[in-house]
Amino acid sequence: MTIKVLVVDDSALIRNLLGKMIEADSELSLVGMAADAYMAKDMVNQHRPDVITLDIEMPKVDGLTFLDRLMKARPTAVVMISSLTEEGADATFNALALGAVDFIPKPKLDSPQDFNEYQDLILEKIKSAAHAKLKTQRAAPAVVVQPSHKPALSNRVINTQLVAIGASTGGTEAILSLLQQFPAVMPPIVITQHMPPGFTRTFAERLNKLTRLNVKQAEDGERLLPCYVYIAPGDQHLEVIKVGGSFKTRLTQGDKVSGHRPSVDVLFNSVAECAGANTTAAILTGMGKDGADGMALIDEQGGKTFAQGEQSCVVFGMPREAIKRGVIHHVVELPQLADKMLNYLASLKRD
Question: Total domain count for the chain?
């Protein structure tokens, strides 16, 4: 069975470009192309697509309004096509909160190589979206619990432990849900979420507003502090190194690792090397296997490893791969994951 795809975009150029890319793949079937939400609504009812690529900025009815109505009337896997602006990034994260599975920036195709890379990426995202769990099918997010009900962490734990998190497809909302469950006082947290340049700063700002922690996009060479969360910038690997008695960030433009830059494996490997048994790591929803090798090294060095359970994942690929390797100590659905991690940290020897 081929995957039925509907393209919704007010630009004829983008519609035709995406249409040609989809038609070139034997696993996909282009069932329609719509220039606005009204045409899209009719085509959704007529063709019942498996996946919709949806432009955020459209005339008459914008992409977010259409997405909200779609998710209430006929939940469908949606990949947002996003503009590389601050407003576009904000709208993208709102779309993911409404239930879109994934997003990709609008194409900037200055060379044949750009075209081929973009085609590979959009086709991969469409296929992944077709097999993703929609918001209505996943375990409900946890209700945010007040800090007084969370176990207190010792000063030694706060100042010696590192928390590392990796995610891909579905990760933006999973990370938000997880961080909202954490109290304001935590060891430093480092996160790699697969995301293109131009979106990670807005993502960090969003998390900073919606959680008790101080969240920022990581900069090169900064000292990791308790109560802070550091997000890997798009298109740069985030590593942690130890300088003297302090953990510091290192950003690099090295080759893609496990198919990605930033790579979860790069982050996890670095944390395993410099923090060892003082590492608490979680691998969340995502396509592929990035993070499995790094989790193996964290396990080998004596750190504690967690994986998000299948029922709450948008895509179970990354957690499944790490679980298959036998390097995950606890598999926990997202609503309970923060409590499990906090209980572990609270159980460590007090000062």
Answer: 2
